[in-house]
């Protein structure tokens, strides 16, 4: 288990999934400690910059102008690959049925040759066509370096793993089958999918073969650990998660298959295939993401059924992935009591074919009746906790007020200059990111290196400058977070920023974007009326982006200049009332002490569209860890108010609403933060 060396706080505890899964990179593998890497200045993944923005129409136009034949697919354009042989000859012999082709992503222009695994961006493709030098840079796929450096580990583990049936001890086989819920999964199915068992790690091992099935590119280990009365599953991938792009089950897919069922776990794919005989594939990182690099392998399917799990999170993820795959060909299995996840359905003896037949088309209609919505409404009513969103691990009071962090919302955050807005929002976002909320930062004021340093300090809960020997350890873990940074600094055009956000949502499945701060998109208008109009336009653009992309946007806005003795109010946000009207949540960092709590600042939830609860709670700053989250000892007291007038910090706190149920619900969230 991965435990923070400093705090002993298991990262797993930060996860809220019913089946908590985490990735540990290479740790936990029997190979003697994490590798040391040379110092790198940029420790964080950033979206490739500049992002080459190209439209599908431009790609088609270019291919036609060059006389390159192509087939228009669901999410990619398919062309002959210049990497497979001389360009002219390859193009002449190419047919739609050719086993290998070059796939160009219609949204990003990114290409992949399935024959050689060469990949690159749209500019690379143009350069290779125009320069005729394509053949010389074959197989420079991203992550191939990582695969190479780990290939020995991969082979060693694979060689040591054995098919479950070959374990010497029947008792051991029985225990393994019970732990992984394999009672109904046959030996033949395990063999067909080439699943092995590593005794030393008590883990199932799922191989990642190259598309032709010739070489082993990586592995996933699944370990079952008893936890109370339940079992907790821990995943480890080689190479590390960001480079692990295994569509598990691909070698079993026939070129003529036109239907596939996508699952979020390997064992679900096994169960589904065994019960239905249908082609099945498992996504490499479950519900977290569908990397566009995998789309070419899914182009051949005319129908894709997504059966990703049994809860609302799985349903949300299925809807998002269907957009990427092209909703016209997708159907979704709705989670519910009668529709558990495939492995569970097999164990319970349910009819998996029938469940698949009940899958709903993902195609979006502009006008719907309640009849089409009623199942969705029922889903929300029976999953109230999940509808409330991801709960913070470090801020129980935010959970109590906002209930959680939900997709598609806009949060406006303000506070006096230098009060610690960036520092607070960094911890608030980091908390969510460690729980699987894929995050994109737009930090226009402070550099990404400085921001990353703040976040890493908050992640490690202390100054790393005093314990540099731990740097690699923490940086490795930090690197595994789905955290990305826009590389903009200073004034930016709103269009460019929104385009980059669209790109990031598509490529990295971003669910939370933080913009710090809005003033950097407002240009240099001198007249205050122009500035206000510009701000309204920008707020509108972010609002639309959040709604259209089911992505939460947290927008930092400076307040108007006001008397520094007074608390800020919603009306103190710079500009017209548009920002607070459009926002689902308004948070204000008040540079004042709450008489009733520790710390010199407090946070005010001034608007909460989800359920209306507003209130304040104290923030105590810890200078060494740069955190605001309450310490284990600190008991933050909450004051609930209905309007700004009651926000006088000198008044004793009064409790309105909330009730006992809220109290009980937050008990878990009040566990000591890391
Ligand atoms: N509560 C606090 N007490 C003392 N120092 C703090 C507190 N919060 C943040 N700081 C420190 O104050 C400095 C400024 O913090 P930060 O950049 O987060 O403020 P900000 O409100 O975002 O500033 P700006 O208004 O310029 O955007 C940082 O060095 C930070 O470590």
In short:
The chain has 674 residues and is α/β, with parallel strands linked by helices. The chain folds into 4 domains: 56-137, DNA Primase, Chain A; 151-246, no CATH class; 268-387, no CATH class; 407-670, P-loop containing nucleotide triphosphate hydrolases (Rossmann fold).
At the fourth CATH level, what is the homologous superfamily of the largest domain? Answer: P-loop containing nucleotide triphosphate hydrolases
Helix content: 25-40%
What is the C-alpha radius of gyration, as a whole number of Å? 26 Å
Regions with little confidence, pLDDT below 50 for 5+ residues:
1-49, 133-147, 634-674
Overall form:
globular
Give the CATH topology of the largest domain.
Answer: Rossmann fold
Write out key terms for the chains shown.
674 residues; alpha/beta; DNA Primase, Chain A; five-stranded antiparallel beta sheet; 23 strands; 16% strand; globular; binds adenosine-5'-triphosphate; nucleotide-binding; EC 5.6.2.3; hydrolase; ATP hydrolysis activity; P-loop_NTPase
Helix and strand arrangement:
Layout: H1 56-65, E1 71-72, E2 76-79, H2 87-93, E3 102-105, E4 111-113, E5 119-120, H3 122-131, H4 144-160, H5 170-179, H6 187-192, E6 196-198, E7 203-209, E8 216-227, E9 230-238, E10 259-263, H7 266-276, E11 280-282, H8 295-298, E12 303-306, H9 312-325, E13 330-332, H10 342-347, H11 352-357, E14 360-361, H12 370-381, H13 384-387, H14 396-402, E15 410-414, H15 421-433, E16 439-443, H16 448-460, H17 471-479, E17 483-485, H18 494-508, E18 512-516, H19 528-549, E19 552-556, H20 578-582, E20 585-590, E21 601-608, E22 614-619, E23 639-641, H21 659-665
Parallel strand pairs: 10-11, 10-12, 12-13, 15-19, 15-20, 16-17, 16-18, 18-19
Antiparallel strand pairs: 1-2, 2-3, 3-4, 4-5, 6-7, 7-8, 8-9, 13-14, 20-21, 21-22, 22-23
Helix pairs in contact: 15-16, 18-19
The structure holds adenosine-5'-triphosphate.
Residues 415, 417-423, 445, 600-601, 621, 626 line the site of adenosine-5'-triphosphate.
């Amino acid at each position: 288990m991965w435990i923070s060396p400093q705090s002993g706080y298991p990262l797993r505890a930060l996860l809220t999934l019913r089946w908590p899964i985490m990735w540990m990179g290479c740790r936990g593998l029997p190979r003697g400690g994490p590798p040391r890497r040379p110092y790198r200045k940029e420790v964080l993944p950033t979206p490739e910059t500049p992002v080459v923005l190209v439209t599908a129409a431009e790609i088609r136009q270019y291919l036609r102008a060059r006389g390159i034949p192509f087939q228009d697919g669901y999410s990619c354009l398919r062309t002959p690959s210049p990497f497979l042989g001389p360009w002219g000859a390859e193009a002449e012999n190419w047919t739609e049925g050719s086993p290998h082709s070059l796939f160009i992503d219609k949204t990003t222009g990114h290409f992949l040759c399935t024959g050689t695994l060469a990949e690159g961006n749209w500019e690379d493709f143009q350069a290779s066509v125009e320069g005729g030098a394509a053949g010389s840079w074959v197989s420079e796929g991203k992550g191939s370096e990582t695969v190479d450096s780990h290939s020995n580990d991969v082979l060693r583990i694979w060689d040591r793993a054995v098919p479950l049936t070959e374990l010497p001890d029947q008792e051991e086989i029985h225990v393994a089958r019970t732990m992984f819920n394999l009672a109904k999964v046959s030996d033949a199915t395990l063999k067909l999918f080439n699943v092995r068992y590593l005794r030393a790690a008590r883990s199932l091992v799922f191989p990642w073969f190259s598309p032709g099935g010739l070489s082993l590119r990586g592995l996933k280990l699944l370990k079952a650990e008893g936890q109370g009365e339940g079992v907790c599953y821990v995943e480890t991938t080689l190479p590390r998660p960001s480079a692990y792009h295994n569509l598990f089950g691909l070698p079993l897919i026939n070129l003529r298959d036109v239907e596939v069922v996508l699952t979020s776990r390997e064992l679900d794919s096994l169960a589904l295939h065994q019960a239905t005989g249908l082609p099945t594939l498992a996504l490499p990182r479950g519900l977290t993401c569908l990397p566009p690099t995998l789309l070419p392998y899914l182009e051949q399917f005319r129908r894709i059924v997504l059966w990703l799990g049994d809860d609302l999170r799985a349903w949300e993820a299925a809807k998002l992935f269907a957009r990427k795959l092209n909703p016209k060909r997708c159907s979704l299995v709705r989670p519910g009591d009668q529709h558990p996840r495939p492995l569970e359905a097999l164990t319970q003896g349910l009819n998996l074919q029938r469940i698949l037949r009940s899958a709903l088309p993902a195609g979006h209609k502009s006008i719907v009746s309640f009849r089409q919505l009623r199942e969705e409404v029922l889903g929300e009513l029976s999953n109230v906790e999940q509808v409330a969103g991801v709960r913070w691990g470090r801020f129980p009071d935010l959970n109590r007020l906002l209930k959680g962090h939900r997709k598609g919302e806009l949060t406006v955050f303000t506070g006096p200059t230098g009060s610690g807005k960036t520092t607070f929002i960094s911890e608030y976002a980091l908390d969510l990111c460690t729980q699987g909320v894929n995050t994109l930062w737009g930090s226009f004021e402070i550099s990404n290196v400085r921001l990353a340093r703040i976040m890493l300090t908050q992640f490690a809960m202390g100054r790393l400058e005093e314990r540099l020997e731990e740097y690699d350890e923490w940086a490795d873990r930090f690197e595994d977070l789905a955290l990305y940074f826009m590389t903009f600094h200073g004034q930016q055009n709103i269009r460019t920023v929104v385009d980059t956000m669209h790109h990031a949502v598509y490529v990295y499945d971003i669910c939370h974007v933080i913009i710090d701060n809005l003033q950097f998109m407002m240009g240099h208008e001198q007249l205050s009326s122009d500035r206000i109009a510009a701000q309204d336009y920008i707020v509108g653009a972010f609002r639309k982006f959040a709604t259209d992309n089911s992505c939460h946007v947290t927008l930092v806005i400076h307040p108007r200049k006001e008397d520094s003795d007074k608390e800020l109010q919603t009306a103190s946000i710079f500009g017209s009332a548009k920002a607070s009207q459009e926002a689902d949540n308004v948070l204000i960092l008040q540079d004042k002490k709450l008489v009733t709590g520790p710390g010199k600042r407090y946070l005010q939830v001034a608007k909460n569209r989800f359920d209306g609860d507003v209130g304040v709670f104290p923030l105590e700053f810890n200078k060494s860890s740069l955190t605001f989250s309450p310490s284990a000892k600190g008991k933050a007291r909450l004051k609930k108010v209905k309007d700004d007038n009651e926000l006088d910090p000198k008044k004793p706190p009064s409790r309105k609403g909330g009730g006992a149920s809220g109290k009980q619900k937050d008990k878990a969230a009040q566990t000591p933060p890391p």
